[in-house]
Amino acid sequence: MATSINSNLAGKIIASSAMEAFGDILTPLNGLTTSFDSEATQVGTSINIPYMSQFANSGTSLTANFTDGTTKYSTVQNAALGEVTLTIDKHKYLSWKIYDHQTTQFSLMQLETFGRQKGADMARTIFNDIIGKVTYATYGDGEVVAASSFGIDNLLNLRETMVDAGGDISQCSLILNAEYYANLMGDSRFVANTYGGTDVIRGGKLGSVVGIPNVYEVNQLPNSDENLVGFLVHPASIAVAFRYLAPMNTGAYSRAERLTNELGMTMGYRQFYLPEEGTEYASIESLYGSVVCNTDAIIPLRSATAA
Questions:
Q1: What is the pTM of this model?
Q2: Among candidates 56, 27, 22, 31, which has minimal Cα distance to 231?
Q3: Within 13 Å and on the Cβ side, how many CA atoms surround 268?
Q4: Residue 211: C-alpha distances to residues 168, 197, 253, 270, 294 (Å)
Q5: 307/208 Cα distance (integer angstroms)
Q6: Alpha-carbon Rg for the chain in angstroms
Q7: What pLDDT score does 1 carry?
Q8: For the CA atoms of 15, 18, 19, 21, what is the dihedral angle to 10 degrees?
């Protein structure tokens, strides 16, 4: 006999699972400059975010000689710490409904699975929207290679380009689509007796590679004419902020709450019942914005050059 699950418990399970998947899918955003905050705001709010606006490289020095009695500490050579104004201008939501008779048909596991799928679906849309800023016009060709040929040698080229630009590799992350991630794992130099462990063959995790501390696999990147299949990224590249949109009046909702994870990523959840339909409606939503910062801070990986 099926177990009846009341709508409040069902909503709590779905919301919690959705938030978990939402955070998992958006984990690669930790490679950018982020402002995760559960405070409430509205669409159109502006947020000021500090970031590293300039790298020191062979052509740019961010230091100067100090001369006693002459030099003042208030003399700034270069404004290395910049500040960008980001507008919270995106509001994504995803809704669903559950009929009265369905509350006797769902198991706890099914509710968790349902919630994870909804959270993942919205997170992928948001991720691709943000990463859509990685364009030829802004970041150039970068490294161009077919998936079947991609390996550590190409990764070393990405690394060299970032270092030449002045980016600190120890702060960088590598983001790859599934095909290129798989080909990198297949590089013979990742065998256990060379790489020093079995994480790749057992867990499918690359860990730190050639000094890049984080390597993320994503199931897709924006489908466009950009031919983008991955990129090496420094946090100064793109700034991203998430906030919570609070209902003006919570009285009409059986549940209206902010959902956050340990990193501070935030989502909203709303749930209400229409007795004339015998139907429970619910939505998850996300309020966010993003802006390009330092254009030297992303080295794209592409499958082909610009048309």
A1: 0.84
A2: 31
A3: 25
A4: 10, 16, 49, 43, 21
A5: 34
A6: 23
A7: 39
A8: 160
Contact in structure between 115 and 94 (CB atoms under 8 Å): no
pLDDT tens digit string along 85-135? 999 999 999 999 888 777 677 777 888 899 999 999 999 999 999 999 999
109-113 long-range contacts, Cβ below 8 Å, gap at least 24?
A: 111/5, 111/10, 111/13, 111/14, 111/17, 112/13, 112/14, 112/17, 113/17
DSSP 7: H
Instruction: Check whether 229 has a pLDDT greater than 90.
Output: yes
Instruction: Say if residues 264 and 104 touch (Cβ distance below 8 Å).
Output: no
Residues 289 and 133 sit within 8 Å (Cβ to Cβ) = no
Is residue 42 within 8 A of residue 248, CB to CB? The reply is no
Q: How confident is the model at residue 58 (pLDDT cuts 50, 70, 90)?
A: very low
List the one residue out of 255, 295, 211 whose CA is nearest residue 8: 255
Span 14-55, pLDDT tens digits: 999 999 999 999 999 999 999 988 788 888 899 988 877 666
The confidence score (pLDDT) of residue 284 equals 95
- pLDDT, position 61: 57
Q: What is the pLDDT of residue 75?
A: 62
Please state the three-class secondary structure of 197-212 as a single string: CCHHHHHCCCCCECCE
Beta bridge partners of 256: 270
- What is the distance of C-alpha 237 from the center of its chain? 13
Give the confidence band of 163 by pLDDT, cuts at 50, 70, 90: very high
**Residue of 177, 181, 207, 213 lying closest to 192 (CA atoms):** 207
By C-alpha distance, which of 228, 232, 227, 256 is closest to 244? 256
